[in-house]
Amino acid sequence: MVIVMESIATEEQIQKIIDLLTRKGFDAHRSTGATRTIIGAVGSDAGALDPRDFQLMEGVREVLRITEPWKLAGRVFRPEGSVIAAGAARGSAQVSFGGPEVVVVAGPCAVESEEQIRKVAASVRRSGARVLRGGAFKPRTSPYSFQGLGEEGLRLLRAAADEQKMLVISEVMDATQIDVAAKYVDILQVGARNMQNFTFLRELGKASLPVLLKRGLSATLEEWLLSAEYIMAGGNHAVILCERGIRTFERYTRNTMDISAIPVIHKLSHLPIVADPSHGTGLRDKVAPMARAAVAAGADGLLIEVHHDPDNARSDGAQSLHPEQFAELIGQLKVILPAVGRRLA
Ligand code: PEP
Ligand code: MN
Questions:
Q1: How many domains does the chain have?
Q2: Are 210 and 325 found together in one domain?
Q3: Mean pLDDT score of the chain
Q4: Taking the CB of the first residue and of the last residue of the chain, which one, N or C, has fewer CB atoms within 10 A?
Q5: 273-307 burial string, b = 16+ CB within 10 Å, else e?
């Protein structure tokens, strides 16, 4: 962190800054130029300093943070980028996120019945999806909406995926669900509403499965990466980020799909990032355009809701693709991917 003093700052004001830095355990490096004094904080954990502690002190013109607040999630930790393999723990066929191949995750919002999940699994697999999604524990805005089938849903999801030789991802909503889910899934999903549930993130840090961490509804990229840092600091470095749209003033779409997050995250972090245009837009006819844009922007994967009968889906039907629309989208991705140096997993 660098503290730039006003040109009229007094010696006493400068000394107060230096004293505070020293009390916080940092070395203060002072350089006095022709017009103003600049103080640099040097210490092993400069990211832990809060710029606001200095911003309001008398004589301070500006405080600049030059170290990033994360240690493990930042690009410098692994400049070549992380490739996260899923499936190994259960002996399933492996699928890697972050390599040359773009992974398509597809399935219904929620597992509803054996017939439903088997039908959807067969159709998305035929089109090219490698990972089957489906919520068993559903975070619904209203307590009266369908909450998911729980462990029975996980069992149906796993069976349908095994039948199609697919991997499985499903959401866990709290720490008590991690062990139950780990019996059935290859990747644990953390929903947008839980992105900053820090005690939960710490528990996921002890899990031995990869975690797909969705971006919070109103989370900045910095907050999101710090949430990934919580999981990684606990020992689990297998974190896959998922951009799923953020809350803005725009009401025409359910959320605003932040495509720009993809190249920005790639610059800031070594973690793979997948895009979820289903929750990102909330409207079926907007899903394919945003999916195409996301892979063109460098997304390492896509997470897409597909239902064999979306009009009668128990959740998120309006944003679920019909199987034929999903097949058409995959055909388009096969054209786009080589142009950006990637291929479908
Ligand atoms: C989901 O994937 O079905 C879901 C609930 O997602 P989000 O947490 O992004 O709303
Ligand atoms: Mn959904």
A1: 2
A2: yes
A3: 96
A4: C
A5: bbbbbbbbbbebebbbebbbbbbbbbbbbbbbbbb
We report the CATH number of the domain holding residue 150 as: 3.20.20.70
State how far the Cα of 239 lies from the Cα of 260, in Å rounded to an integer: 20
| pLDDT of 322 | 98
Closest ligand (CA of 245): 1
Place of tokens 């492996």: 94
pLDDT-derived band at 213, boundaries 50, 70, 90: very high
Burial class (CB in 10 A: 0-12, 13-18, 19+), 232: buried
Within-domain flag for 186:
yes
The answer to whether residues 8 and 134 belong to one domain is no
pLDDT at 97: 98
Cβ–Cβ < 8 Å for 149, 174: no
The verdict on residue 78 lying in a domain is no
Token pair listed for 243: 């951009």
Q: Is 314 in the pocket of ligand 1 (CB under 6 A)?
A: no
Query: Does the structure show a pLDDT above 90 at 332?
Result: yes
- Of 37, 65, 93, which one is at a domain's C-terminal end? 65
Does residue 44 carry a pLDDT above 80? no
Res 93: pLDDT: 79
What are the residues whose beta carbon lies below 5 Å from ligand 2 (ion)? 109, 316
Q: What is residue 124's three-state secondary structure?
A: helix
For ligand 2, the distance from its centroid to the CA atom of residue 305, given in whole angstroms, is 7
